[in-house]
Amino acid sequence: MLVQVTTEGHGLVEHIERARDEARRAVFDRLSPGDQAELRRLLHILNGTA
């Protein structure tokens, strides 16, 4: 079975990605660059990738 994403589906993916990026910026842009780096560091520790 072959499945292909339609043009409408591609548009939906782009819409979702834009909304996700806007939501991420709304939350994380409130942090200073140093705080963002610290958050990344802590998340890596919690994720076991540090």
Which series of helices and strands comes N to C? HH
Major pleated sheet: none
Q: What is the terminal-to-terminal distance? A: 41 Å
Number of helices: 2
Unreliable spans are none
How many E strands?
0
Taking all Cα atoms into account, the compactness measure Rg is 17 Å
Could you tell me the mean pLDDT?
95
Approximate helicity band = over 70%
Category by helix and strand content: mainly alpha
| Beta content | under 5%
Number of domains: 1
Shape, per Cα inertia axes: elongated
InterPro entries: WH-like_DNA-bd_sf, WH_DNA-bd_sf
Provide structural commentary:
By secondary structure, this protein is mainly α. The chain has one domain. The protein contains 2 helices and no strands. The chain has helices at residues 7-28, 33-47. 0% of the residues are buried.
Please outline what is shown here.
The chain has two helices and no strands. The chain is mostly helical.
Features:
single chain; 50 residues; mainly alpha
Layout of helices and strands, plus pairs?
Layout: H1 7-28, H2 33-47
